[in-house]
Amino acid sequence: MTIKLAIVGRPNVGKSTLFNRLHGKKLAIVDDTPGVTRDRREAAGRLGDLDFTLIDTAGFEDVTDASLESRMRAQTETAIAEADVILFLIDARVGITPLDESFAALLRRADKPVVLVANKAEGRAGDAGVNEAYALGLGDVIPLSAEHGEGMSDLYRGIAQHA
Ligand code: GDP
Ligand code: MG
User: Fold this and answer.
1) What is the number of the ligand 1 atom nearest to the C-alpha of 150?
2) Rounded CA gap, 59 and 62, in Å?
3) Domain ranges of the chain
4) pLDDT over 60 at 37, yes or no
5) Can you give the C-alpha Rg of the chain in angstroms?
6) Beta-sheet strands, E only, within 113-155
7) Which CATH architecture has domain 3-160?
8) Which of 28, 54, 111, 158 is most buried, judging by how many CB atoms fall within 10 Å of its CB?
9) Helices 67-82 and 98-109: angle between axes, nearest 10 degrees
10) Does the pTM of the predicted model rise above 0.90?
11) Is ipTM > 0.95 here?
């Protein structure tokens, strides 16, 4: 069975970088539709022996006005509804922001497994952010570097326990 894996998180945490690292053949691009499906990308993904359909909830990195949070909320709610497992990314170098906290609040209420990933954790620059992320109340934190491919086996274990 193929599980649906949604990648959520505020802009610039590395969602698309992780999507690109995990995806194989592109399945579909959903765009030009106002609202929650805008710029959403789906693709087949694979990690070890796990096959999944990946959902990248990106597409509003260029939105800087006050609508950003409500649009992110809508996309996150869609991801919660559709996905079997949610990958929630934070930026380990920046640490936890108010936007991360509002995402976490949504995800804590969701009845879906969440894998909390502290991205950009290569080297030591992410250590403090990884520790901070435990305060989000979403369980274990997986340090990852989507860009450098570090932490992928821990990510595998994090996903596999829900697959
Ligand atoms: P998104 O907005 O969440 O989709 O984030 P992107 O995937 O577009 O990445 C935002 C920026 O973070 C880009 O400049 C990436 O190169 C950078 N980035 C992504 N993953 C990593 C990582 O593991 N380490 C570091 N240092 N930078 C990263
Ligand atoms: Mg993106």
Assistant:
1) 23
2) 8
3) 3-160
4) no
5) 14
6) 114-119, 141-143
7) 3-Layer(aba) Sandwich (3.40)
8) 54
9) 30
10) no
11) yes
